[in-house]
User: Which sequence fits this backbone?
């Protein structure tokens, strides 16, 4: 890896959950490709004693984002189901800070920072720089990166550790442009 996680850094793993992986209710193309890369970053974070944060969708069965309730998505990541679990090959440490979002029926939270208190928690720990990867780049990763920048963190998207849903052609590139426009750094290691 060209970049190194340091003392005032944290790794943020966004929504690497079974329902977003192959065979899941809302699978992101090539989602399994993020896991090995994220595991390398997790190992680096552990070696640097940097916190690892893992966000997850944690929806009630009647969540407003589900098509059956007027939303755009199929039912996914329903709390306490296998689909809401983290991908089994993702090597999250025992002390991972798990951030649950989207747990209120009538509110759709895409960002790991939306109504979770994560920004305040990281600022309290004197975290200044974030390394972000996960699923999907053009949905929840995008929202998390934009909010991280807005919260004043130096924010790096780990481009090799994320994949796009590409609901519309070009979503991935438009997402990268939006991230750059807010001050995020787009990093690749390959």
Assistant:
């Amino acid at each position: 890896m060209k970049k190194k996680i340091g003392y005032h850094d944290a790794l943020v793993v966004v929504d690497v959950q079974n329902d977003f992986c192959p065979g899941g209710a809302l699978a992101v193309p090539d989602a399994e490709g993020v896991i090995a890369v994220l595991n390398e970053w997790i190992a680096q974070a552990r070696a640097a004693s940097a916190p690892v944060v893992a966000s997850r969708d944690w929806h009630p069965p009647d969540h407003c984002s589900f098509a059956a309730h007027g939303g755009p998505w199929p039912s996914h990541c329903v709390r306490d189901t296998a689909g809401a679990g983290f991908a089994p090959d993702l090597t999250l440490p025992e002390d991972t800070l798990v951030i649950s979002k989207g747990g209120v029926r009538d509110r759709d939270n895409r960002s790991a920072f939306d109504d979770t208190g994560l920004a305040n928690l990281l600022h309290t720990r004197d975290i200044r720089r974030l390394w972000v990867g996960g699923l999907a780049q053009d949905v929840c990763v995008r929202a998390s990166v934009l909010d991280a920048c807005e919260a004043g963190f130096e924010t790096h998207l780990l481009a090799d550790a994320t994949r796009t849903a590409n609901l519309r052609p070009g979503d991935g590139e438009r997402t990268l442009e939006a991230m750059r426009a807010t001050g995020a750094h787009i990093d690749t290691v390959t």
Remarks:
- Residues 32 and 67 are 25 Å apart (CA to CA).
- The mean pLDDT is 95.
- DSSP finds four helices and six strands in the chain.
